[in-house]
Design goal:
There is one protein chain. The chain contains three helices and 19 strands. Strand 17 and strand 18 form a beta hairpin. It folds into two domains: 84 residues, Sandwich (Immunoglobulin-like); 142 residues, Immunoglobulin-like. The protein is 13% helix and 45% strand. It is mainly beta.
Length: 267
């Protein structure tokens, strides 16, 4: 009877161990026209793909992020193993899908759209204070840039803190007519439009925007737009549009996902 009881306990323990949910994704889907992002809790030391049917590439300024893409369609299921600098090993199966349901897989056990547990989210007055501070900082980049109607809109920097992204822009007026800013529009969209289909756009609302109503002739004004933290895939763009009050001057600045991943952290 005791032997039978021991066997039952061992079997129950084995079953429970098998039934436990793994702490990270065990399978991912990749496509040939999309890029899938894998986010790890530590910097990537090495990675091994089970087949040449997929390509992998680390993100230069985000050493804990790995990009994965299919080389050809409908490849046979393979695997991917990633080694991180905290001496952990992650192994997942990789299968093809023409339109993957997920484009970002989280291996950190921390929600991707939230700041780390050690970083407190910013409240609205803090977002406003940080925006006003960033508006006066010197540019840390000078691209992308868009020029039209004797106007120039430029991204001067992207900063991150407390689950918020701060986009620092400059608006230069090279004309003899003052430019009055009516409103901004921000959205995500696909880089290219598929044949016989409309281009998908997803509008996003700023957390804070200190509006500069008028840019005088031959002057430059800086402004900051604060957004809840996000990332975008390689096949998408983040677009910021400026519209003139009582005029037709309109500028649209296109920001790539790689620019967002290089956001400068604020302490």
């Amino acid at each position: 009877m005791k032997v039978l009881l021991v066997v039952m306990i061992l079997f129950a323990g084995f079953y429970n161990a098998e039934a436990q949910v793994p702490p990270y994704p065990q399978a991912i889907q990749v496509g040939s026209n999309t890029t899938t992002m894998l986010v790890f809790p530590a910097a990537i030391k090495d990675a091994d793909r089970g087949s040449a049917d997929i390509i992998i590439q680390p993100v230069k300024n985000a050493r804990n992020v790995l990009k994965v893409k299919a080389v050809k369609e409908n490849f046979q299921q393979t695997n991917l193993t990633v080694f991180t600098e905290d001496d952990k090993v992650y192994s997942v199966s990789v299968s093809y899908h023409p339109s993957p349901f997920e484009l970002a897989y989280n291996f950190t056990q921390v929600p991707l759209n939230l700041p780390p547990a050690t970083e407190r989210p910013l409240n609205d007055p803090e977002v406003q204070a940080q925006s006003e501070l960033i508006a006066g900082l010197a540019p840390i980049t000078r691209h992308p840039t868009q020029r039209a109607y004797a106007m120039e809109m430029r991204l001067n920097g992207i900063y991150s803190k407390g689950g918020v992204l701060f986009f620092q822009f400059s608006l230069s007026n090279h004309s003899n007519i003052p430019f009055s800013l009516a409103f901004l529009r921000a959205y995500h969209r696909d880089k290219t439009k598929a044949k016989r289909s409309s281009r998908m756009e997803k509008e996003v609302l700023p957390r804070y925007f200190a509006q500069h109503p008028t840019v005088a002739a031959h002057t430059t004004a800086n402004f900051v737009v604060a957004m809840d933290q996000f990332t975008i895939a390689d096949n998408k763009l983040f677009v910021m549009e400026c519209f003139e009050k009582n005029g037709d001057r309109h500028l649209a600045l296109k920001i790539k996902g790689k620019h967002i991943l290089r956001a400068h952290p604020l302490r």
